[in-house]
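Can't paste images in this forum, so I'm doing it all in text. The chain is below; anyone willing to post the predicted structure tokens underneath?
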Amino acid sequence: MKNQKPKQYKKRPLHHVVYQVIARPIAKLLTRKYKYRTLNTPPREVFKQPFILVSNHTSHKDKNFMISSLPHQAYFVATEDIFCNGAISRIMRALFDPIPLFKPDMSTVPVRTMLRRLRGGDSIVMYPEGHHSPDGLTTDIKSSVGSLVKAARCQLITFRLVGGFFMAPRWCASFRTGPVRGEYVNVYSPEQLSDMSADEITELINRDLAVDAYEIQAAEGPHKYISDRRAETCEVHYYICPHCGAQSHIHSHGNTFHCAECGMLVSVDEYGYLHSENDKKPFPFKTFKEYNVWQRERENEYLATKNADDILYSDEGLTLLEYIIDEAKTVTVATGDVYATFDAFHMPAANIHLKWTDLPWLNYNQGGRGMQFIYEGHHYEVFHPTFCAVRYGNLFFRAKDKNGELNIRY
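Text version of the structure:
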């Protein structure tokens, strides 16, 4: 039998036509309500050579903002759940062919796909944070991103979105109307990158993508973000009361949230700032950024009081979903209660008893209402509209930390 040559990569002109004729005009139309604008666009010649474009991740609208800003077609890296919606997913794959990535898998298949497309002359767009910000700060990305850029030997373009946090923080159930902008930060040539290590490339990406939403808001205006649901569903991420310390008693409605245990009441204004509305139960923070820092500290204090076998968190009536990408579908596997200890996550209704240390990675989905993981080779997500996945994720990151501390901002 003769040796077969590797199949040659072929560009797909249809994707470039669809991008220019359909995707960009629709994206520009959809982003008008947010007064979206792009700054510092490089010359068109830059986009004629293969590139990896990396951007911070601020909202579910980011892909629309990016397509509005990017004058040249590129392939987006997208999470696997997007590919499991039946006919919609099949149409999306035919017209755009995004690169599927199931973050808890840590598989090298998406990386090989990206490198193959880059070496075939196409370009890639990535959101290396992998999730939206809960507090307005950009999360540091993993060193594997720098390794990918180093291996690709192509241009690196860094792009930063500003205003997206106030438009749609990770935990929100609705969008606010207000200004968002995209900024091309830097273009790095292959020659510049060749002299840098993977860690150095990761460091410059973190530097270029870094955004402090509240710092920019204070310096520039501030800008208004209009909605009548500015606080709604914040308890999906913010679950400890700063006044009485009670957990999972925060409830929200419209522009306010309160603690059902002590009566603390807080409003969120059109600029994203927090205001105490009960003088007898004062709220000590002006921003979600401050609230998040405090909550992480209290989380460590709470867990320090617990024993190894204690049930730390529990929730009722969660749905276990399985993603079957080959069949473009999502199936419901079970519905039941979940609980977690320092060592493991448990869902008895699905016979899942999973040690945190056995997970390669873990990911939040659906604004923090879902937690994605791999168990016995299957791609799962546990979900509920009011599920606070970050509490369970914190246990995973503690288990991965040698000091047993929650030292990662995720």
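The longest helix spans residues 13-30. The chain has three domains: 13-74+122-220, 234-304, 313-400.
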